[in-house]
Amino acid sequence: MLKIIRCEGNGQGSCKGCNDKGIWNRHWTCFLYKIEGQEGCYCYEIKPSIEDFKSGHGLNFIGDYNYLVMPGELAATVSLKIPYHVGIYVPEGNELICAKKAKRANRARPVSEILLMMFRSANRDYRKTVKKLEEMKNG
């Protein structure tokens, strides 16, 4: 059985086994975990529909271990289009079930670049939210 430990603390963690004590932001699609005996950068990308899967956005697979999180029906439909090394999680009730385990694919980008992309994404989401709030305020 794998022992999975989520990063803890007040600073953003890195993909080096969570030594930096990361905090969590629900808008990021790359979450940092330390998995006992299998350390690396675990990336999770959420694809709720076939339209999202085919949109051309995402499917970057930049981590050491990459997973797609999607409904079971979608996973069955697109399974042949998912690279061999990419794993799949599907929701079942209130849990996520691993339908396909990811294979290690050593990342081509340094940890610093992955963190920069995460911060950039979080900033983009923040700006979108601020803009929506301003639009609601101004009617």
Describe the structure.
By secondary structure, the chain is an alpha/beta fold. The chain is 29% helix and 20% strand. It has three helices and six strands; from the N terminus they run βββαβαββα. Strands 3-4-5-6 form a four-stranded mixed sheet, with no helix packed on it. The model is unreliable at 9-30 (pLDDT under 50).
Layout: helices, strands, pairs:
Layout: E1 4-6, E2 33-35, E3 42-46, H1 50-54, E4 65-69, H2 72-78, E5 87-92, E6 95-100, H3 111-138
Parallel strand pairs: 3-4, 4-5
Antiparallel strand pairs: 1-2, 5-6
| Low-pLDDT windows of residues | 9-30
**Which structural class matches the secondary elements?**
alpha/beta
Q: Please, what is the average pLDDT?
A: 76
Terminal CA distance: 53 Å
Shape, per Cα inertia axes? globular
Helix content: 25-40%
- In total, the number of strands is 6
Radius of gyration, Cα only, in angstroms? 16 Å
Lateral arrangement of strands in the main beta sheet: 3-4-5-6
| Count of helical regions | 3
Strand content: 15-25%
Reading the helices and strands in chain order gives: EEEHEHEEH
Major β-sheet profile: 4 strands, mixed
